[in-house]
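TA notes. Do not distribute before section.
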Amino acid sequence: MIRVLLVDDDALVRAGLAMMLDGAAGLAVVGEAGDGAEAVTATDAHAPDVVLMDLRMPRVDGITATRRLRARRRPPEVIVLTTFDTDENILRALRAGASGFLLKDTPPPRIVEAVTRVAAGDPILSPAVTRRLMERAVVQTGAHDRARAALAVLTPRERDVAVEIARGAANADIAADLAMSVTTVKAHVSSILTKLDLDNRTQIALIAHDAQLA
């Protein structure tokens, strides 16, 4: 079972998500929290695999909570679920370590799919968020040069894998496109994360986009 923690300051939202996710095969809601501070405590108590995280909450916001959770030795995956899809919020969440960013109007089956995929190691973004990221040529001044410099430490094959990740390809698709085994793809992904000091595949995709490789 994939253990899910719900973090939102609206109790009705949490109740709706709990009904939706507890009814899905392979998922179990193990806890709830009303803000980012409670999210950290609830994670200690329930050891979730995936946290569905709101952004704007009292006391500790979702970005701060995501950063704290992802800094742990064995961090849960975090999917941001919010109504606020500004460029700043999207990028801050992803750079804090979130593996997904969905809007609250996302259809229930898509949310269930997102939890399942993120638990399996595949990042997921809502279509609207993906379009915004693709349209953004450079995140901020100097990001292009910094991204190019960071990617210079990768081998040519690792760069190819990074580009495929930025295009949204799963490991099996990367293996087929680059004529390598899935095990080799996973080894390259692990090496990229280590060399670039990143937490997840979404951050690899961000750097590749900043470097305008994808």
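Switch to the second chain here.
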Amino acid sequence: MALTKQDIAERICSQLGFPKKQSTEITENLLELIKSTLSAGDDVLVSGFGKFCVREKNERKGRNPATGKDLMLRPRRVVTFKCSGQLRNKVNGK
């Protein structure tokens, strides 16, 4: 089961004692801050969690899987995530 924005807001509410409306606003504002930082081309580093990076991808050849027709894919930016060693150890039960 995936962790949703609503789940995060509820945990902020129950664990930190904020009212539900304020917890929802905190969650929304945090995610908007991350999105705006990434869209500006900057990286987001969360110590002990990981780093979100924006990478530039060049134009490249691709193929339409439905028709098999070759085409050129436009240059674009993508977001990558590299987890921290602490997160990796926690996920692996170390």
